[in-house]
Amino acid sequence: MSSTPSASAGSSALPAPARRWTLTDTDGRTLTGHLPPWAGNDPSEHNVPPDAWEDRLADIHLTRHFPGPTVPVYCATSPAPGPVAEETFSCTLDCNPHAEAPEPRTPLVNLHLCGDSWLTDLGPQDLTRLAATFRWVANRLDQEIRPALVDAQEDWARHADPDLKGALPGNSRIPWPPSR
Known about the structure:
This protein is α+β, with helices and mostly antiparallel strands. Helix content is about 25%, strand content about 25%. The protein has helices at about 55-60, 125-160, and strands at about 20-25, 30-35, 45-50, 60-65, 70-75, 85, 90-95, 110, 115-120. A 3-stranded mixed beta sheet has the order 2-1-3, with no helix packed on it. A 3-stranded antiparallel beta sheet has the order 4-7-8, covered by helices on one side. A hairpin with an 8-residue loop joins strand 5 and strand 6 (about 85). It is elongated and about 65 Å long. About 20% of the residues are buried. Mean pLDDT is about 80; it is low at about 1-10 and about 165-180.
């Protein structure tokens, strides 16, 4: 039996206030970037050693999680003798604004299908329930997650720093030196 969250769980409506993340080094210099309203985390950090700027910027990861439905599956790694409830088809809206090429630096969706798991021994009623779950996932992808992605990409295009001027040696994506 599957558990399907309501299609209204988690809205794609994005709050309006502009936010910024901030990195501050031990000398008091700061660097900021757009913190989208959809991001559930703030990667701001203070007292960053000046020689760690490149790593800290590369590690900035903005994310929003969309839980998926839970279905009973057989897991190779589970000690349980039968199926265990496992989340399937969860999504994250992710952006790594200072990712190294060729990684994308704009918001994208990652879909986690399921761990090392199988759906086995499905009878007609099981297939009916599974098909309903897949329809729910497809509707959610189309009606909630895709609009959230479009909103995130449009917001990113409007607010992200358009041209990172200056760069650390050998890395044109990172502004240097940070402002005091």
